[in-house]
Amino acid sequence: MPGRRKRECKKVGCHALTDSADGYCEQHKKEKWAAGDERRKSARERGYDAQWEKYRKEFLINHPLCEDCLSKKILRAATVVDHIVAHKGDERLFWDGQNHQALCKQCHDMKTIQEVCAAAGRIIPGYLRGLPKRRYLKPSVPVYVVAGAPGSGTSLFVARHIKPGELLIDLDDIIRRLSGQNPYEINRVPYLVAAYWLRDRMINALHDNKEQYAACWITGMFANPDDRRKLHSELDAKVYVVSTDWMRCRLNIKNNCEYKGHENQYIKLAEKWFLNFKSCPFDNFVSI
């Protein structure tokens, strides 16, 4: 039987040829297994024991606000002591006070997925569509879903109605934070799987609501009625659809500086939204 055709190692930057079934050369195969072993360890085995818990409580007393949110002029309580540089079992890095920062769970999750994607050199596959097949956990706070085509004004609608202490889950904002760039000016595809994963993690965190949000707003296109039905039924969400007409959406995209240079791409997305949208009995149509 002929041997497997050799190809370059899947590790970014490695050009070694391999015929391994998993696509990694011998060196990076060992690194991959080592990383897996580290992930399989319990929190206590990774150093997060009673001594760390005591240190964590003292650190958060002295640093009560999320540093990432604070840099954006947002006041949010910190709940996690984060290692700025991943310690990877290095005890010196683990206990180095200069390597610690206070973060809220949302910012910590965002940083974690960035590190996972960077370590993998690619987005780990898992989502084929926007919403997962598994069921969401039931949230303990009211949830509002705002759907609409690009340029319809979903962000403006939320800005007019959201109140202090309420959480906004917006896919564009998640992509902005993952990439560090304007989501309208980049190829979003490499970030979508990570963004969907993080959005679902934020939604499921509302089940025990440790951040004590008063309510949650979720924005997106959600043209597919099955997506809105899932959010409505599993999250008991009130669904708003911003009913801006096609011509107004097109004009808004052309006049919005954030879309500059990519107007045609988002006009096509808006066209697709109007072609795919089907109303549901629970939809609440609103105008801007």
Taken in chain order, the helices and strands follow as EEHHHEHEHEHEHHEHEHHE
What ranges have pLDDT less than 50 throughout 5 or more consecutive residues?
36-40, 121-130
Distance between the termini: 66 Å
Biggest sheet layout: 5 strands, parallel
Number of strands: 9
Please give the radius of gyration in angstroms: 22 Å
Shape category: globular
Counting helices, strands and paired strands, the structural category is: alpha/beta
Numbering strands along the chain, what is their spatial order in the largest sheet?
Answer: 6-7-5-8-9
Number of helices: 11
Q: What fraction strand?
A: 5-15%
Query: What integer is the average pLDDT?
Result: 82
Helix content: 40-55%
Q: Outline of this structure?
A:
With 288 residues, this protein is an alpha/beta fold. The chain has 11 helices and 9 strands. It is globular and about 60 Å long.
Could you name the key traits of this structure?
42% helix, 9 strands, alpha/beta
